[in-house]
Structure formats: structure tokens, C-alpha cells
Amino acid sequence: MLVILGFAMIGVFMTLIMTKRLSPILALILVPTVFGLFAGAGLGIGEMVMDAIASMSSTAALLLFAIIYFGIMIDVGLFDKLVEFILKVAGHDPVKVVLGTALLTGAVSLDGDGSTTFIVVTAAMLPIYQRLEMSPVVLTCVAGLINGTLNIVPWGGPTARASSALQIDANDIFAPMVPSLVAGLLVCLVFAYLLGLSERRRLANNGVAWVEERGSNRRKDLVGAVAGSSGKGATAAGAAMTPSGATTAGHGAGNGTAASARGSSDGGDASGAEAGADSADAGAESAGSGSALSNTALDPHRATLRPKLFWFNLGLTVAVMVLLIADILPLPYLFMIATVIALMVNFPKMKEQQEELASHASAIISVVAMVMAAGVLTGIMSGTGMVDAMAAWLVDVIPDSMGPYMAVITGLLSIPMTFFMSNDAFYFGILPVLSETAAHFGISAADMARASITGQPVHMQSPLVPAILLLVSLSGVELGDHHKKVLWRALIVALVMLAVGVALGVIGIG
Predict the structure, then answer these.
(1) Which comes out higher in pLDDT, residue 62 or 118?
(2) What is the spatial distance between Cα 58 and Cα 90, in angstroms, rounded to a whole number?
(3) Of 23, 51, 146, 214, which is most buried by a Cβ count within 10 Å?
């Protein structure tokens, strides 16, 4: 009965959020509550939920202060130069921007912390996506894929858990899986390239033209609407700046392209010609990335910029990253201290501090509320025994004739099971049972551990993972939209990693 209720609850939850019948927060609270009562939780359901929420309080605190800290760093201009560099390298080509997103995510993901990775990536890349009117779902898809694939590094959670659960060295698990990791990352890059091409076509179909200036070595430029950050309105530019600083309303029939002109999202009175005049008044400097980022979170004229404190803020952030990797202080406390220092130095007046904190309130509330709501789901699944029942059922249904393939089966099971339950539940509750069974067929614990980490690209997209809730929240993306684009791609990446491991013999068959 518990098995049926568990799988039914997961099915109803996923259906509701992917069809947008309920928001993720409402679904995370309502669906498990109803099914928990059917499972006989009774009045004890409250204690189950509160125990789970208490266990997630440190995660909520980490996300709360990490959002504030990196929000401050964005506001004071720490990431402006990085964005300018990315714009210079990628130009206005969605393909290069999406590939840049993948590479940046990969570099930052090496610290092993998904939340930090997604905060940095959205801070650097989201304004560029807004500038080019690219879909932020592409950003969340690529960032989620890359981070999930790299989640198998030895200092990441899954490998460490598998090592601890089966009492083997973490490097014995990871090192043989490097070829699988490389293959998974290559598949992710292929997906990123294809998503970039898709965005380029979508923009062209929406009237955004790609042009190459004749007689010039300049890279392709984008002529069309310029997106502003949400809530501020997007003012369209109907004119493009020429190298000399003059404006043109587009390239005529000679170039075979047409410029797209739109008005303000507020229904404003700014026409393409007026936008062109504004550009002309700004001079040659406004043709660069600075004007491209106007009305975004990285507006070069925002009042919160602190250029004189750039090196201090950079040093503070580097120190935070070093301490994060060294694991000297608990992460929530580390970000608390860093946030206090950043606020006091950059905004010494109390009124400024209050305004800065208030400016990030909406992002904080949505993320922390999502984490607390996820505690309802995990608490009820664990408290009612649904997780244990589902795990026991999956182990029991595997026939003895499939014993020699237990490592492969474990890899396949890790894909859905780490999505629907926590890594702790899978690696400490299910993997040891599967490994003990596999030992009777001559399959080593190391092989089982390696197979168990191949499902991580899918696991990272789970609504039970606070980091992915942070990513979609910061990007302004619905979790259901993210799942529609990312889940099948993550499944392919996971299967490729498993197949490569089996082909190379590091995931054995008895």
C-alpha cells in the first residue's frame, strides 16, 4: 500500500508542476499532506514535517545569506568586468553565449557546491540572456546539466556518500570514472551547442536579424529589441550603432536584413528613432557592452556601484571561496560573516543597508519558502515509511537471474531513485543492500559505487535539491518549464556515462 501511495504521490506531484496546475511551493506542501493522511500519518504528520524542516534549516540559512552576499556583489559591480569580457568574446551570438554558460558553470562547479555555482552563473549570465532576449530556461537547462554531471567529483556529495556507505576510498570510485565524466560533459556541450542554435533560430523567427557589416572585421551584431530586467520594462532599440558612432535604422535591402523595432514593455512612447537618437547622444562608448546592459541587473549607471571598492570585494569573495573549499567554517556561518562585512564596507549607512537588504527580499522569500516546502515532502515520505517501502520493493522485484547485471541495474535505478528521494536515503539505505546482493555474483563494491553515481545529472534536477530551486528562482523560470527541457537531456547524459563505464569495464558485469 505504501509503495503504491509513494509512486502515486510522486506522479501526481510531477504532473501538477509540469502542467502548471499548481506552483511548486503549493504542490510540495499540498500533495504530500494529502497522501500522508491517506498513508495513516494522522496527527503525527506535523512532527514528521517539523523534523524534516529542522534538518533543512542550515540549508535554508546558507541559501538566504548566499543570495544576499552575491546580490550585494552584483549590485556593487564585482561581476561587471566578467560580463563585459564574456560579451566581448561571445559577441551577440546565442551559440557562443550558451557555450560560455556551460564553460562558466563547469569551472565554478569544481568547488562541489551547487548553490554557489548557480548564484555565480546567474549573476554573470542572466543579464546577457536578458540583453539578447534569450530564454532563461536555456540557462537553467545548461547550468543544471553541467553541474549535475560534475557532481560526481570526489569532494561532491554522492561520491563521498557512496565511499562512506560501502567503506571504500573515494578516489577508487572517481578515478576510473573520469572517462565517463568526460563523455558526459561532451554530451552536455553538444546539447548546449544545439540549444544555442535553437535560440538563434527562434530569435530570427521573432524578427531579430543577424547581420555582418560589409567591409569590416567586426563580429556579427544583433539588431533588434534589447530586453530589460524583469519588472523594469524593456526598451527596444530600433537603430544600430555604426563604428563611427552614427546610428542607422537598420541595414537596407543591400544587406538583405531588416531591423526589428519594438516599443517599451510599458507601452511607452520610445520609438526606434528616439532610441537611435539616445544612442547617438551617448557617443561611441554607448555602443559597447555598457549600453547593452542598460536596464538590467548590471546597468552601468546604477547607484549601488562601488568601483573604488572593486579589489576589496574581489579579495573578500576569493577569501570566501577559499574558506568554502577548505571547509574551515560551516557554510551558513561563513556567508553570514561575509554578508555582514560586505554590507558594512559597501553600505556604511544604516538606511543604505536596509535598502540593500530589502532589494533582495523577493528572491530570498521564494527560495527559502521552496526549501521549507520541500521539507514537507521529504518529511512525510520518510516519516510514513514510503521511502523504505519503495526501496524494499525495488530490490525485491529484481529476479535472481539478473544478479550478474546488478551494477548496471544499480546505475539504472539511481536515475529515478535519486530524483525522487534524497542522496542520503539512496546511498545509505538502498546502495548497501544492492551491493550485498551483488557480492554474491562476484561484483565488487567499487563497481556498485561507480554505477550508483551515474544518475547524478538527473538527481540534480530534483525538486528535493535546494540548489536547483535556487537556480530556477534566481532565473525567473518555472520548475515545470525547466523539467520539460532538462530531464530527457539529463537522462541521456546519465545513460551515456553508465554505458561508457560498462564499455570500459569499470562498471563490471558478474
Answers:
(1) 118
(2) 38
(3) 146
